[in-house]
Amino acid sequence: MKALIPSLLLALVSITAVFAKGGPPINEACPVDGKKGRLIYRTFGDEGTIIFCSVECMEAYKKNPSAYKVVAK
Ligand SMILES: [Zn+2]
């Protein structure tokens, strides 16, 4: 039972780190096709967190980030 507490704490720290990384998204519209971005599809660029409307758009952007213009809100 004692061993459970450190691993729970570690899990909590990991979750916090994931949310802290990148911060809130800088854009609202998907940079690939202009549809509304969703927080579950995101990547962390130099400018901050960038969100996309779908996993396809996210992958397309990651392959060639300079081909798409991110419009900050
Ligand atoms: Zn898209």
TrEMBL record:
Keywords: Signal. It comes from the Bacteria. Residues 1-20 form the signal peptide. This is TRASH domain-containing protein. It comes from Brevifollis gellanilyticus.
